[in-house]
Specification:
alpha/beta, three-stranded antiparallel sheet, Aspartate Aminotransferase, domain 1, single chain, globular, Aspartate Aminotransferase, domain 2, seven-stranded mixed sheet
Amino acid sequence: MISEQNIGGEFEIYPNDFLMNSKDSAWPIFKNKESLRCNSGRSALVIAINDWKKSHKDFRSVWLPDFLCNSIYKTINNLGLDVLWYQNKPGDNEFIDNITPKKDDLFLYINYFGWPNIAVSNWLDLNKKRSWGVIEDCVQSPYTKDVGLVGDYLIISMRKWWPSPDGAQIHYKNFVEKQHLHDSDEVFISQRLIGKLNRGEMKNEKYYLDLFSKSEQRLDLNLPRKCSYLSEKLLSCVNISKACKQRQQNWKLLQEGLEILPDVKMIFSSINNKIIPLVAPIIVSENSRDELRAFLLNHKIFCPIHWTSMDHWSNESLEMSQRILSLPLDQRYGSEQMNSIIKIIKSFYIEK
Ligand SMILES: Cc1ncc(COP(=O)(O)O)c(C=O)c1O
């Protein structure tokens, strides 16, 4: 059976999304931290870096994991800072690099896909007395318990989790002084709103895809910005616990359904009630990944690749990037859609 419904891809916006009476707020709270809202994860990053710069005169370099979203690297590079790399990727149990950040450096690490980054947090535990700062990137794990405890700064981005066109947050221990935030970008917000409304109507695919791609190019302009009124409103109309439970259940369904396939491996082999997954990242063979992705797309299942590699990646990260695929499991979907995904992946490998 071919699914008629899109599974995955941009969140749609429906008029009812604004009307839900919610006791929740989408904005998570982290222990011992204050917070400031902004528009994007990269804005949150700029705020953190500007803040650190003010009170650390020897600050020149930011340490980044080689397996990362290009937008992080671009943002730091645009600020004219030196980037130093260390090896780390999703699912690593050990920190294999032998690095020594210098006084006033910043060290950024990512809690990938909703799972706590055990390798890095264990290593940081051994380096508790440090003269350098830590940014914990929780863009993919804002609702997971027990993350966000280590960083001097912590960044999240809500637009990966909800229909809101923008919305992000920086959490911090000590803010030196308030920073100026530009107003939200009206063109960006409108392009995304129009695109998301059209996607909800399942009409004009080419038109809305074009709007999404145009808007994405504006994200790096004039950082940092405020969160838009539209997103504030949407983010106050959500049911967090229902969404989190749904994501966990969907992950379990995918894991159980795909377990029998020798060609497919979940990067994270288990989940517990503290972990709220963004997607279900799988590993397949390098020569079948792109074909599988296209096959799923033909069945209207949209699977992103987190992430395409860059020059400096280690061989291990490069290999992962050629074999990884992210299966959608967000709160829009339940067992029917997860079973469709499983069925289509099985038909790809079994009937191939
Ligand atoms: C791990 C991670 N950090 C930061 C960002 C940047 O977030 P934003 O796109 O909201 O600027 C992304 C973007 O995908 C990301 O995946």
